[in-house]
């Protein structure tokens, strides 16, 4: 607390998260690390590499506690969720305060809660709760940490809307904010005074829904699960240039395995496997960028089938002499696993048994229990720092909750 801290992107490239103290130093979102590295000595800036395993585990823990707010939950992002409070009895504000305190005590993460009759108003309440705590004077202090807009009289709600810039409303981006301001709409209160038909005609049905939600009419339902994905991708920028085919095969094989695991988690099969490799446009070196799409004999979620297709595609586009900076695997032509499709008979026996779903399920369970990548395709090589294609994370904190070797030890 009190120190400027930032989190860096893959390969320690740029700032993707900033504490308030770092913002006060003038660090901008997305600013390259080399431009602000001098602030380490000059202003005590602390920079940390992204630690996705730790973030994911902490997010899972937080969401499991936040689920105690109500019977329904929609996880919106790694650090944000909507809870359905329909039918929940008692003082909702006190209930939210208790859950917030539990998250802080059990996990050590401070959070804020916004309550409203619609998702947009709940988001606004969260913004008010966060701003009232972090920016004293922006909103009354009584709304810090937990803000229940549903319990406010109309006059108090109007006062909060007047204090909220229209650009802070969920669903209003920078371009629309500028257009609204040109029309004399500068606050959320000004926006609420508009007629839905006018907003629909002047802008869009989507913005009309935002307006109606802000007026208290629920237009965006709580989604228990996300819509089926049209594609699944696993891509990475390398910590240093890769020039050898064997190293690229290891990388692409691991990406294929991770994508296949996501595919099985969604209950889907893929019909095609796309592979790409490219050099960095920022390096003074020969440029190269190629993509290959390999159709599968039949849609599958089998890691071995997908990995073999990815390697086949990679070999068809690889060319020696280039410094490859990024590669990736995308699974295309997705369909539910319940859809059955026969296989064309070319008179040859497949090297891989047809149904390996139980094996794949076992692999996923082992990786989930003992750590990602514990069981993987041999083509992806051995785990460890020796891989030349791994990301550069020189400032990474320990994975305290997901790696046995990183668990802190206390001696009395």
Features of the shown structure:
alpha+beta, DNA polymerase, domain 1, 3 domains, 412 residues, 3-stranded mixed beta sheet, Dna Ligase, domain 1
Please provide a written account of the structure:
The chain has 412 residues and is α+β, with helices and mostly antiparallel strands. It has 3 domains: 5-50, no CATH class; 62-214, Orthogonal Bundle (DNA polymerase, domain 1); 232-343 and 350-380, DNA polymerase, Y-family, little finger domain (Dna Ligase, domain 1). 37% of the residues lie in helices and 18% in strands. The chain has 14 helices and 12 strands. Strands 8, 9, 10, 11 and 12 form a 5-stranded antiparallel beta sheet that branches. Strand 1 (5-8) and strand 2 (15-18) form a beta hairpin. Helix 4 (52-66) runs antiparallel to helix 5 and helix 10 (196-202) packs antiparallel against helix 11 (205-214). The radius of gyration is 25 Å and the shape is globular. 29% of the residues are buried.
The CATH homologous superfamily of the largest domain is termed 5' to 3' exonuclease, C-terminal subdomain
Overall helicity: 25-40%
Q: Report the β-strand fraction as a percent range.
A: 15-25%
Number of helices: 14
Low-confidence stretches: 342-346
Average pLDDT metric? 87
User: What is the fold-level CATH name, i.e. the topology of the largest domain?
Assistant: DNA polymerase, domain 1
Order of helices and strands: EEHHHEHEEHEHEHHHHHEHEEHEEH
Radius of gyration: 25 Å
Distance between the termini: 27 Å
- CATH architecture name of the largest domain: Orthogonal Bundle
CATH class of the largest domain, please? Answer: Mainly Alpha
